[in-house]
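Hey all, quick one. A colleague (J.T.) asked me to put the manganese (II) ion job into the tracker so the inputs and the structure tokens live in one place instead of scattered across chat threads. No bug as far as I know, just bookkeeping. Sequence used:
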Amino acid sequence: MKKLAFIRRNNESHWVGDGFPVRSIFSYNDLGKEISPFLLLDYAGPENFPPWEQRRGVGAHPHRGFETVTIVYSGEVEHRDSSGGGGIVRPGDVQWMTAASGLVHEEFHGSEYAKRGGPFEMIQLWVNLAAKDKKAPPGYQNITDDQIPRADLPSGAGTVRVIAGNYQGTRGPAHVFSPMNLWDVRLTAGARAEFSAPEGWTAALFVLKGGVRLGSGEIVAAAEMAVLERGDEKFAVTALDDTTFLFLNGQPIEEPIVGQGPFVMNTRAEIEQAMDDYRNGRMGRLAAHG
Ligand code: MN
């Protein structure tokens, strides 16, 4: 059985633009090796927004060298990017945006949701690309709730929505550049479930709602992430309440990580190049809004 390596939480929240009250659960700044191929996880909300006439969110900004994966649990996120991608990400939907060689995008609350207000909860996960894939053209996958297959856990313990990779033969729709599994797991209070993940890969559970007891005894509460040891394949969890967790699992990318702001590359020179390319419009531009 896999053992717990450590638990991460962050009680400090900060605003990204004026739309996203975010707790940064981990970042490559201090966990680059331990959490590879994942770079960062920002947990936005849960927050109840009042109805609002203006646009809330974050305006045009670039990314290069990785992918941003936005998983919406409540509320709506509206997106546009310079490669032509765009759309509204609704509850249950996942936006898998490949920045790779570079793009410019904006992220706002969906305009209908903003007008009506209500609960907002979202995860943005950054997934690294290997050096060879950082040069790939940018891409955009708008994966809707109905495209994400659900697998039942044994004994009515709950369900697994397979966003990427595979759970017991159920395959997720996301195109990925390196081997990984991303599962949105729902467990019924009191249920115990066993999972299996490749030995040597990063494996972490981020609990959004409820809480779990790991097979090794430790409790992981809401807004906490448990990183498991890479040895062994199996691990077990028991739900202390009706529970939602995101399971992050991937083969580490064994390359140097050098990042600054919205760029994550392998060398300092590539960061300088990214800043120069962005300043000179070589990552594209967004058309004026409206
Ligand atoms: Mn962004």
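Adding what we noticed when we looked at it: Residues 61, 63, 68, 105, 107 surround manganese (II) ion (CB under 6 Å). The first helix runs from residue 28 to 35.
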